[in-house]
Structures are given as C-alpha cells and as structure tokens.
Amino acid sequence: MEKSMACLVGAIVILWCCISHVTSDASDHRYMKGDSVPFYANKVGPFHNPSETYRYFDLPFCSPAAANVEEKREDLGEVLNGDRLVAAPYKLDFQIDIEPESYCKKRLTIKEVAQFRHAVLKDYFYQMYYDDLPIWGFLGKFDSEDKDDQSGAIVHLFKHVHFEILYNKDRIIDVFIRNDPQAVVDLTENKEVEVDFTYSAKWVETDTPFEKRLEKYSQTSSLSHNLEIHWFSVINSCVTVLLLTGFLAIILMRVLKNDFVKFTPDEEAIDDQEESGWKYIHGDVFRYPRFKSLFAAALGTGTQLFTLTIFIFMLALVGVFYPYNRGALFTALVIIYALTSGIAGYYAASFYYMIEGKNWVKILVLTGSLFSGPLFFTFCFLNTVALAYNATAALPLGTIVVIFLIWTLVTSPLLVLGGIAGKNSQSGFQAPCRTNKYPREIPQVPWYRTTLAQMAMAGFLPFSAIYIELYYIFASVWGHQIYTIYSILFIVFIILLIVTAFVTVALTYFQLATEDHEWWWRSFLCGGSTGLFIYGYCLYYYYARSDMSGFMQTTFFFGYMACICYGFFLMLGTVGFRAALIFVRHIYLSIKCE
After folding, report:
1. Are 192 and 125 in contact (CB under 8 A)?
2. How far are the Cα atoms of 8, 71, 137, 144 from residue 185, in angstroms, in the given order?
3. How do the residues of the chain divide into helix, strand and coil, expressed in percent and rounded to 5?
C-alpha cells in the first residue's frame, strides 16, 4: 500500500511538471513597445473535418523564408493534438500599427490555383497563435446556386488580412482577424493568377485584465441557455437515479425480506408464496468464472481506466485544461496511463490469485495488452491513413519512439511491479458459502432473461442519464465548440457510476432468483454495455448531427471512438461487477449456508 501511495504522489508531481511545460515562448507575456511577439501559423483543413488538418504551408502561401520554414519545437501533447507550428508570414510587433502593406507578391500556377480553389470549396480554415491566443480565419468564399453541385461555383480567395489587437499596458489581451470581402482574387478559372498578399494591424487599448483574457472561450459553455440545458441534463440524470434507486430499494427489500423469512427455520413464518431460488444455489454462486485470467485482466484494466478518469477529472476541476492549453489533455492522458499501469497489474494479479489462478505471467501479459493492444492496432491503421493524406494527424517517427520508450521503460516495469505486489498481497477469496464439487444445472430461462437482453436493459438506463451531455462532449472533441463545465460533467459521471451499479445489482439478483449462478461475467457485461450504447450514439451523431465526411475523417471518428467506447466498456464493467460482488456477498452472509 505504501508503494502504491508513493507511485500516486510521484505521478502527480511528474504530471504537474509536464503540464506546466505547455506554455508560451514568452513565459511572462510582457512586452515593451516594438518588441517582437511570438506569432505562429498552425494548420489548415476542412472546417467540418477536425481530424483532417494539414501544415499551413502545404497550401501555396508565401513562406516567410523561401528556402527554410522556421518550425516551433513542440511537446508530446501538441504533436498528438496534430499541432505543427511554424513562424507566421506576418510581423506584428507590440503596439505598432501597420497600414495595409504587401508581404508577398506571387504568381499562382494553374496547379496552385486548383489547390486554393479546392480548399475554398471545402471550407478550409486556418489556425494561428499570437502570444498563445488562438486565431482562426477562412481562406476565401464561394457562391454556388446548388449546394450539392459546386462545379459552377464562383470562387474567391481573400488576399488581405486585418488584425485588431487589444492590449492592457504591457500585455496582450485579445486578437481578432478580419478579411476584406472586397479584397479578393478570382480563382474560378484554371489559369495563372497574380496575387498581392497584404495585411494591416490596429492596436486598441482595453481595461480587461490579463488574468481574464481567456474567459471568453470558457464563457461559451456558461451562457444562460447552455447552462439551462446542462442543468436539465443533471436534473434528468438525478431523477433517473432517484426513481431507479427507490424502485430497486423497494423491490429488493420486499423480495429479500420474504426470501429471508422463508429461509428461517421457523415454519410459522413460511407463507404460501412461491419460493425464491437464489438461496438454493449458495453452493454454486461463488464458483469461479470461466476464463479466469481474461476476467481478472479485464478487472485490472478497468480499474486502471477508472483511476485514469478520476485523475483527469481532478486536473480539469483545478483548471489545468483551460481552453487552448495546447496538448495538455493528451500529455496528461499519456503520462497518467503509463503511471497507473501498476494499479492494473496489482488488481489483476491480486484478484487472479484470489480465485486460485496460477500463471501470473499470463495474467500480466493479458492485462498489459487488453486495452493497449486494440488501441495500438487502431493507431497503426489510422496513422497509415494520415500518412497517405499527408495530414498533421500522422505522428512523426520521433514521437512514436518516445511513446514506445514510455511504454517500455515506465508502463511495463510498473505493470510487473504491481503484479508482483498483487500476487503477494492476497490469500484467498473467502466466500461466505462453501462451493459444491459439481456445478448445479442451470434451468431454461425466457428470452428476456438472456445475457443479450439483460445487456440491452442494463446499458439503456445509464445511457439515458448521460445522453444529453454526450452531444456537447462530441461537439467539443469532434467539432469546434469549447467545453469547460467540468463540474457538471463530473456530476454526470458520478450519476453514471451510481446508475450502472444499481442496474447491475438488480439484474444480478433477478439472475440468481432463476437459479442461474453464472453471474460473474454477466454482471461485467451488463455493467459495460453502456459503452455499446455510446458507440451506437456515434452513428447517430456522425450522420445526423455533424457534417463530417471523407474517408480519413470517417475512419478517425469511428476508429478512435471504438477505442474510447471499449475503454468505457471495461471501466463500467468493472464498476458493475464490483457492485454485484458486494451485493452477492452481503445477501449470502445474511443466511446460514449449509
């Protein structure tokens, strides 16, 4: 236990060091008049396809240096986020107004005209960072009578950019970008075009303090109409929990009370009601499940993912993941996942030896690959797709090597150490009832009591408690909305755990009542079935609520969402089984087993 606490403390220290590294080049953000301000161009891509992004100078813009583009050194999280920052072609010194001036004259070839025309028709936008403040702008505009057929569209490329920069004393507060709708160049025809790219800048003083310069990005989630929807989601979830809790409490208390009365030796307390069957399988209910190693590995991995989620929520609630803190979330995910692998090894090995497992090497290999294995193969396929598209989502070789070293030097050793500690920490399962030598035959059950039917019921109720909040999360991850109300999200997450636990307990009781003692795997599958409903919601969101399109964006969306939903399946499955185990232990401790 002391080793586990030491690992957790070390994880927090290392994580804070890594997250705090994600800052601006100018660490204090203070400038004097005429000072150079860090200005980077990030990426371009279709507005509706957030994963399909390309380097800024993949389009034939004027490069600040014809022979060499100055690239910003990025950390792990920024690279995973698809950021590829390069020096912007504009020079905006502090408090220096700029009248419209040319920064580049270029004759676009027919091929380059076709590139820009394709980008404008696909609603390409670009992203930049000025003093770590994000800026967005579209490349151009087009007019088309038929939205579905753009072959006859008139395409214009913006050639002038105006920057309006707000400052307070020696600090930059905000920056806006505007395009002149009259300063355009026609790219409709396939012919060479001469373009004079120009820009201008205006500095405006404001009294907004520096500490509040990022508030406007977080306020979009806190607008009154958005808050009403979020609180409606919470109230809806709470009502679901209260109704479910009350219903289950009443039903289970009445049924269990009758069961206990009927099981007492006092014959006068026995009435004419039909006898419940859960107490008659006390000799089989604690019979260990099939595929013990896989079951223990699933519990260990689910416990690790649950710990990972709690840590992410802790960091979010203390304000680490403020809007556009580039790569902070991905950095946190990689580091916490690596440092919590010891938890997975500990719980998997300890449970495996509790249920009389013998091959501890096998259990550690399964635990280490149960989630990371599918994630690795998914990444290999999607990274290949990104390489074929030459998109920024393709990780460079150096980043892949860094991740491999983290897995080799941190994740694997901690997994082994956790497994050794778990192996030596537990003695036995200590079941309340002795297990019979031969298993009891399981009677036939109607279709609505089968595993698939119960998984459908078990997944629907927790999903109904979170589906409203899911839209905002999807719109943030796979769109351009900003989500910052982590407190509400945490409340919804707690409600999700409570509903999952209660539903799994109820279905486990109904299963035992039919004298079906194979509840171990079913409680896990029922608890995790919410992950399948979330993946079903992915189909609805993609086709009904988003404008995503194209092979790359489609594969990225469904590929990575499959991994996320699989992670939810393992995590909620672990929660469901743990709740069911506590319940089963309690009811069988309350009777005298022969």
Report:
1. no
2. 58, 29, 17, 17
3. 55, 15, 30
pTM for the model stands at 0.89
| pLDDT tens digits along 300-332 | 999 999 999 999 999 999 988 877 777 889 999
Whether pLDDT at 17 is above 60: no
CA distance 306 to 312: 10
Alpha carbon 466 to chain centroid, angstroms: 15
Instruction: Tell me if 192 sits within 8 A of 109, measured CB to CB.
Output: yes
Backbone angles phi, psi at 93, to 5 degrees: -75, 155
Candidates 20, 15, 16; CA nearest to 338 is 15
Q: Residue 126 corresponds to which tokens in the numbers above?
A: 């670009």
> Looking at residues 79-107, what average pLDDT do you find?
91
- The Cβ of residue 567 has, within 10 Å, a number of other Cβ atoms equal to 22
Q: What is the DSSP string of 186-218?
A: E-SSSS-EEEEEEEEEEEEE----GGGTTHHHH
Task: Report d(CA 589, CA 433) in Å as an integer.
Answer: 8
9 pLDDT above the threshold of 60 = no
Residues linked to residue 195 through DSSP beta bridges, in sequence order: 106
Rounded CA-CA distance 256/277 in Å is 11
Q: Provide the H-helix boundaries in 355-450.
A: 360-370, 372-389, 397-406, 412-423
pLDDT at res. 270: 45
Tally of CA atoms within 13 A in the half-sphere of 44 that contains its CB: 24
Q: Bridge partners of 166?
A: 174, 204
Q: What element of type H or E holds 174?
A: strand 171-179
Q: Which H/E stretch holds residue 389?
A: helix 372-389
64 closest CA partner among 35, 82, 40: 40
> Cβ(195)–Cβ(185) under 8 Å?
yes
